[in-house]
Structures are given as C-alpha cells and as structure tokens.
Amino acid sequence: MIGNTATSESWIRLPQLRQVFASSELTTLWEKGTQAVLSLLIVTILVGLAGGVVKTFIDLRLLLTADIDLGLRHLIVNTLMLLAVVEVLKTTLAYFSEGRVRVTFIVDTVLVVMLTEVISQWFTGGDWQKLSILAVILMTLGVIRVLAVRFSPAPPGHASPAQTIAPIFSSSH
Question: Could you give the CA distance from residue 48 to residue 43 in angstroms, rounded to a whole number?
C-alpha cells in the first residue's frame, strides 16, 4: 500500500511539474536569459570588430615598409574579413530583434566569408583546384540566395531585413 501511495503521489506531482515548466514565468525567464547571452555575444562581436579595425590600421605601416602590393593585399583581406564580421553582427542583431534568423542573412554571411577566401586565395597565388571548389560553392550559395528571396514566405510589402535592423546596415547607402 505504501508503494501505491508513493506512485499515486508522483502522478499528482507530474502535472504540477508540467505546469511549472509551461508557465509564463519560466518562458519570461528563458527569454531574458537568451537576451542576456545574446547581449554578451553582441558586445564580443563589437569588441572583435573594433580590434580588427585597430589591427588593420596598424597594418597600414606595411604600405611604407613592404611592397605596396603586399600592404594593399593585407588591407583588402582584412577589410573583407571585417565586413564578414559585420554580417555576423547583422545576423545576431536580427535574431535579437526578431527572435529568428532569416536564411538570407546566413547565406549573405557565408557569401561574404567565401568571397573573402576567394580573394585571399587569388592574392596569395592559391592553386586553381581550391579556387574552382570555392567558385562552385559561391555559385551554389548564389542560387540559394536567389531562391530564398524569390520564394520567401514574407508578405509582399514587408520591410527589407536591412530596414528592420538599423540604418547603419541599410543596403541603400
């Protein structure tokens, strides 16, 4: 009998436990926790971006001390990497404000990183096999990007993603 009582009490506690986990208080706690972690991630990305700008600025000395083409290569590759970081920041901010990530943001981020890699390989005299593979990946991502925009579930008058994040990331500038 004692075993049966304990079992019946656990059945009573199970719905109460479900209510606790499904309560709006726990959902609110989850959302605030996610926002706190994303805020730390955004600060981390911003610090990394600022550090990258400082490093790129310091690398400008290569224009005076090394061959001009080497200095300019570093400048171009560093700038493109910083733009990739900006795309990651843009994606993070979109998730922070909308609660979801758009496929186009992810594809844009990967496209920027892949283009940076192609240019880096091109400048460093990379072999044609690597460049060919990167070109195929870029074309595939381009097709995915076009399809994502063409068959987007967003209604036709919906604001563009660049307008929903911040004016600084707007593509009209």
Answer: 9
Q: Whole-angstrom Cα distance, residue 53 to residue 86?
A: 12
Question: What tokens were used for 16?
Answer: 């109460």
- C-alpha 3/C-alpha 5 separation (Å) is 5
Tokens 């706190």 sit at which residue?
Answer: 36
Instruction: Answer yes or no: is pLDDT of 163 > 50.
Output: no
pLDDT in tens, 60-103: 888 888 888 778 888 888 888 898 888 888 888 887 777 777 77
Instruction: Identify the residue whose tokens are 């955004």.
Output: 42
Cα–Cα distances in angstroms (integers) from residue 157 to residues 99, 105, 153, 160, in the given order? 20, 19, 12, 9
